[in-house]
Structures are given as C-alpha cells and as structure tokens.
Amino acid sequence: MSRSRANWLLPVSLLLALVLGLLPLPDLLQPFRPYWLALVLAYWVIEAPERAGLGLAFICGLAADLVFGGLLGEQSLRLVVMAFILQRFRAQLRFFPLSQQALAVGGLLLNDRVIAAGVHLVARQPQLPASYWWAPLIGMLLWAPLFLLLDGLREGRKS
C-alpha cells in the first residue's frame, strides 16, 4: 500500500461519513439512518489502532456535534465509549468472521442508542421515537459491505 493512500483514506472516509449523516432523507426513512460515523470509526479502530483511537473518536464526535447541531459533547461521549470497547476487544474482534463482527458492531450501535437516550434523559432533551431503535440493525447489516469496501481501499485492491 502506498503511503499517500494511507494518509488520505482515513480523513476522507470520516469526512464522507459526516456528509452521509447530513444527507436529507424522507421523514419515513429518517429513523433508519445508520450512524455512519460510528461505523467508519469502528473500522479504523479495529484495523488501524495506531491511527485511530480515543482521541480521534473525541474529535470526530465534537465535529459531528457541531455539524449536526446536537448537544455539544454527546456524540463525543458516544464515540469514545464505542472506541474504548472496540480497543478493549480488538484482538478478539479481528479474528471473528464478518457475520460475528457485524453482530458485535450491532451490539455497540445498540449500546450507542442507550447512551444517547441516557444523555437525552439527563439533559431533559426530547427522546427519539421508538422507530429510531431500528438504526442499529441497519448499521449491523451494512457492516460487512462497508468493511469490505474500506478494507479493499486500504489494501489497494479493487472493490
């Protein structure tokens, strides 16, 4: 892999994840929007821990809070918790088949929703409707294609 590809792929993929989170969706599909930033960050924490960790998760979360106009620090907390859990179990996750990795990522995305609900409860913000709990399932289903796409780009193979 060339160094130039290694240098640009991580920031571009995270920026693209932020943009995907901003794309307008019809009201009917809005609850099913995957947490793209968490999915992309999870890939990098698992596959390139020397470049992606808690600090990057915190910075990405702050950027997402500013871009999405949410409660400042909420997404930072959510992403740092996810990155911490991924770092803790990285050695095991790397050797799981993609289907089991998808289940683990789905569990992390569900945990993310629980944290978000807790933050909204403590901050006395309105809770998201029950339909928003489907998004972790969509993220779990997207894990394998996203993983293969990013892995192919990172390794220099055609996807």
TrEMBL record:
InterPro entries: Cell_shape_determining_MreD, MreD_proteobac. Belongs to the MreD family. The chain crosses the membrane at residues 53-72, 93-111, 131-150. It is a multi-pass membrane protein. This is Rod shape-determining protein MreD. One of its GO terms (biological process) is regulation of cell shape. Its main location: membrane. The keyword Transmembrane helix applies. Involved in formation of the rod shape of the cell. May also contribute to regulation of formation of penicillin-binding proteins. It comes from Pseudoxanthomonas helianthi. It is found in: Cell inner membrane; Cell membrane. GO terms for cellular component: plasma membrane. Pfam families: MreD (PF04093).
